[in-house]
Design goal:
The chain has nine helices and six strands; from the N terminus they run αβαββααβαβαβααα. The chain has about 300 residues and is of the alpha/beta class. A six-stranded mixed beta sheet has the order 3-2-1-4-5-6, sandwiched between helices. α1 packs parallel to α5 and α2 (about 65-80) packs antiparallel against α3 (about 115-120). The chain is globular and about 60 Å long.
């Protein structure tokens, strides 16, 4: 449960320190992964514990349908692969009071039933959230302390459109040290526990933050996983199953995403006969989703 293990509190940092933190985290990724590999038990590829960690705040409203569809697709493909022993779990999160008073995290425990997992997913509803950053660190803490099976291959898929508290230069309503947990320390705890994290960024919302993409890439690197945009999340089932290791890293796709955003803004401005700056964000988002999905 929360508070089981003391960790360093997260800290509000400047732009330069935030950039240095994510760069350092990326460089430390190989060392952390190597240490985890040396300490970890040999995992049985026929035994899989798969957890989805999902931002359930109101800003996810335009992405939640696609997120649910991708989760269902991954589950169905993995079950169809006839792995001998599979369990699923869901950790959803919002934010701490006063930003959100519904819940901080909600854990739907491991189940071997695909129907039960589908019910978990169907119950996901975007609500609340307050300021931009969300309770990512608390969700990571819950992921680490789930009852993972020692011998299982351990996978966590994190789907989000916003960063954790403590890394952005603006839009964070909480003071330094507000979070009880440090998200990078929690990512390192995943690596030590043999949990591989795949981070799924909801674009273009994630790109509105200065350090959110760097964070998503860094935590995936720390655990030996990959970072991908939501439009490519359907490929994760094949990656998890080991059928392909194609490079679908978020950092490799960012130039394409930026181009899509620029084109979508120009096209929308022309269609709506208005200045590019006046195009509603929802319209740009819809067009970017369409472009990315058509690839």
């Amino acid at each position: 449960e929360k508070g089981s293990t003391p960790t360093s509190p997260s800290k509000q940092i400047s732009d330069g320190e935030a950039a240095a933190t994510t760069t350092t985290a990326a460089k430390e990724g190989e060392a952390a992964a190597a240490a985890a590999a040396a300490a970890a038990v040999v995992h049985d590829p026929t035994i899989l514990d798969l957890v989805f960690c999902v931002d359930a705040t109101s800003s996810m409203g335009s992405y939640i349908t696609a997120a649910k569809a991708n989760i269902r697709s991954i589950i169905e493909e993995i079950v169809a692969s006839e792995k001998a022993d599979i369990r699923f779990a869901l950790v959803s999160y919002r934010d701490l009071p006063p930003e959100d008073r519904t819940y901080v995290t909600r854990v739907d425990e491991f189940t071997s039933s695909m129907r039960t997992m589908q019910q978990y997913v169907n119950a996901l509803e975007p609500q609340g959230g307050g300021d931009g950053p969300e309770a990512v660190a608390d969700a990571y803490h819950d992921v680490v302390f789930l009852p993972w099976r020692k011998e299982a291959t351990k996978i966590c898929v994190h789907i989000a459109d916003a960063p954790p508290h403590g890394i952005e230069p603006r839009g964070d309503n909480h003071p330094p040290g507000w979070d009880q947990w440090d998200p990078l320390e929690m990512a390192r705890a995943m690596a030590t526990s043999g949990i591989t994290l795949y981070s799924v960024g909801c674009e273009p919302a994630l790109g509105q933050y200065r350090h959110a993409r760097d964070f998503m890439v860094s935590v995936a690197d720390i655990t030996g996983g990959q970072a991908v945009p939501l439009a490519s999340a359907d490929k994760l089932a094949a990656v998890i199953l080991g059928g392909t290791r194609e490079e679908i890293g978020l950092d490799k796709l960012m130039s394409a995403v930026q181009q899509d955003m620029h084109e979508a803004e120009e096209e929308a401005a022309q269609d709506l006969m208005c200045a590019a700056a006046a195009v509603p964000e929802e319209e740009i988002s819809r067009r970017v989703h369409s472009k990315m999905a058509s690839r």
